[in-house]
What does this fold into?
Amino acid sequence: MNAPENQITLNADQWEKLLAGLYERDDRLELREAGQTYPNHEAVDAYVLSGHAEALRSADVDGDIWETLEDLDETAADEEEAWAKICAFYLERGCVLVRVSGMEEPEEWILTAELARRLGLI
It folds into this structure.
């Protein structure tokens, strides 16, 4: 199954490796370089990544879908419709949807294309 260019699917292990392979310094996310050491305070988890996402739907981090939808001046009947409208809004503007498969609850993150490139996702 080929995903559209602006959609990436990672499995749970790939997701964890992605997070473990990042560091945050001066409010900027970057890939760790092999052989380099990084202070513990630069570690990235889902919460840290959420500060760099345009929108998200996660079991670990509250992305507040309803507030995001309100910011877009949209309404929806339920959470699925709300998330679909949020995705459509951001994907039409060149962002990238990262889905994590194999999770008990939906794990989906919308990142700018620039950030996704810098993190090696595209």
